[in-house]
Design brief:
CATH architecture of the largest domain: 3-Layer(aba) Sandwich
Helix content: 25-40%
Number of helices: 15
Largest sheet: 7 strands, mixed
């Protein structure tokens, strides 16, 4: 993910975390940061709180996390507007994000005990089983683009598993970070067990290496992932990394073109295009290329820029002027290298971080729209000579997070999604999305490890084999 939690680029020495409204460029509320001593003290206190929390029952934890879901829903308008003010999310998408967080809390509150129940094993004598024990304090390094969802996605299963968490959120959403802490504390999570740290990036390495921190989860850029993996690896601590994506959707010749274009536009424009699992490359077989281009342009025209605070707005600003300018640079370089600008591609003459829905045709290797993650409202159309060529192009990427197939033949789509596409998730005739009921994560430079579902909650537990046998004489063992 571009522009997220980049540990390789230390923040400035500013005394406060100053928020900026992306819609108009005006400064919002400023927040005092924590220092390294604050962070290390919080880690120590969290470890102490964990030793008590881990002994609580699933029923007690469930009650707390269910309460968090109730609070999220009761304050959904407040939180949606906070996201709008800090990172430009439309109010409607903010409401949907809060609802998703509440459902996620409920899911893990109801299913953690099942996911973490002892599993019997037969090893030829005695009693054997696998048990799942919490490991301690998880440091969560989170991005700005889904400022509530990314945190709750990690926190709900971690807390239900008996762990604690320290949150280092993106510097442009400090209000969201503190609001999440407030929700969890109000719900009954012990104050020291979950803490938000408004921490300059330069201190994160020391926190990762602190003995009171057991593991790290990061959603961010590839550069951030490399830095965290190196730091965690140096002290042999586990990490889960959800990094960038350049999701490819293969559009086959039997697809309904209008429906395919509507789906493609929806996939591209989630969160204004600022999503790791947004569709970014639409690989279309040549026989339907021209009508698909026209249909996608019309579908993308429906995402008009508007006030993100107003209900019904389809496209708000990007998260910052710097991010907007980087997207525009990628578009301009792609056009200079042969891409055709079919829609948008012009920076509006207005304050704020605005960029219109944009469509590029004739996208090919050597252009940023083909080779890089474009983290904004820019759809790239790539021509393929047929199914095999489309799959080749889709897999010809450093990323492997999500992928899609659009086809009228469900058996064909199922085969391609399950067997051919190199990605952690493949969806047929729908846009890629995360869900608490199924594992979420990628391969290649999109990271490793999983969130959500049973696989996600198992990431931060000690998967322990226990063998119980009466004491007796004789017998040999082989390692």
């Amino acid at each position: 993910m571009a522009e997220q939690a980049e540990l390789t680029r230390p923040q400035s020495s500013a005394k406060t975390f100053q928020t900026i409204n992306p819609a108009n460029g005006e400064p919002g509320k400023a927040y005092e940061p924590h220092n390294l001593d604050d962070a290390l003290a919080a880690a120590k206190s969290a470890r102490t709180a964990f030793l008590k929390w881990r002994r609580t029952s699933f029923a007690d934890r469930s009650a707390v996390i269910h309460k968090a879901a109730e609070i999220l829903r009761s304050r959904k308008d407040e939180f949606a507007r906070l996201m709008t003010e800090e990172m430009g999310k439309t109010f409607d998408e903010g409401l949907a994000e809060v609802e998703k967080c509440a459902f996620h809390c409920e899911w893990f509150a109801d299913h953690a005990a099942e996911y973490l129940a002892n599993q019997e094993a037969d090893i030829g004598g005695g009693e054997a089983f696998v048990t799942f024990n919490p490991i301690g304090i998880v440091l969560a390094i989170m991005p700005w683009n889904f400022p509530f969802w990314q945190v709750i996605r990690a926190a709900a299963p971690a807390l239900m598993a008996g762990n604690g968490m320290l949150l280092k959120h993106a510097s442009n959403v400090p209000g969201c970070a503190l609001a999440i802490e407030d929700v969890l504390h109000q719900a009954g999570v012990p104050r020291d067990l979950f803490r938000t740290l408004l921490l300059p990036t330069k201190y994160v390495e020391a926190l990762i290496k602190d003995d009171n921190v057991a593991a790290v989860t990061l959603t961010g850029s590839v550069a951030a992932g490399r830095a965290v993996a190196a730091e965690a690896g140096s002290v042999l601590k586990k990490c889960v990394l959800e990094l960038g994506g350049s999701d490819a959707y293969v559009v086959l010749e039997d697809a309904d073109i209008e429906a395919a274009a509507e789906l493609a536009a929806k996939a591209r424009m989630v969160n204004g295009g600022q999503s790791c699992i947004a569709g970014k490359r639409f690989i279309v077989v040549r026989s339907i290329l021209e009508p698909f281009e026209k249909a996608l342009v019309e579908a993308m025209r429906g995402y008009a820029m508007g006030d993100p605070a107003q209900e019904g707005t389809k496209l708000g600003p990007m998260q910052s002027v710097k991010a907007r300018d980087e997207i525009h640079r990628q578009v301009e370089r792609s056009v200079a290298n042969g891409a055709r600008l079919l829609l948008g591609g012009k920076v509006p003459d207005r304050p704020g971080a605005w960029y219109p829905a944009t469509v590029l045709g004739d996208v090919r290797a050597g252009q940023p729209a083909h080779d890089e993650e474009v983290f904004g409202p820019v759809a790239a159309i790539i021509a393929a000579d047929g199914e095999a060529d489309a799959i080749r192009i889709a897999n010809d990427s450093e990323f492997g997070l999500g992928s899609g197939v659009i086809t009228a033949d469900l058996d064909r789509g199922r085969r391609i999604a399950a067997e051919e596409l190199e990605a952690g998730m493949s969806f047929v005739n729908e846009n890629v999305r995360s869900d608490p009921r199924t594992p979420f994560g990628g391969v290649k430079h999109s990271g490793y490890g999983r969130e959500c579902g049973a696989f996600g909650i198992h990431e931060f537990v000690n998967i322990k084999t226990v063998h119980v046998k009466p004491l007796g004489r004789g017998g040999n063992s082989v390692e």
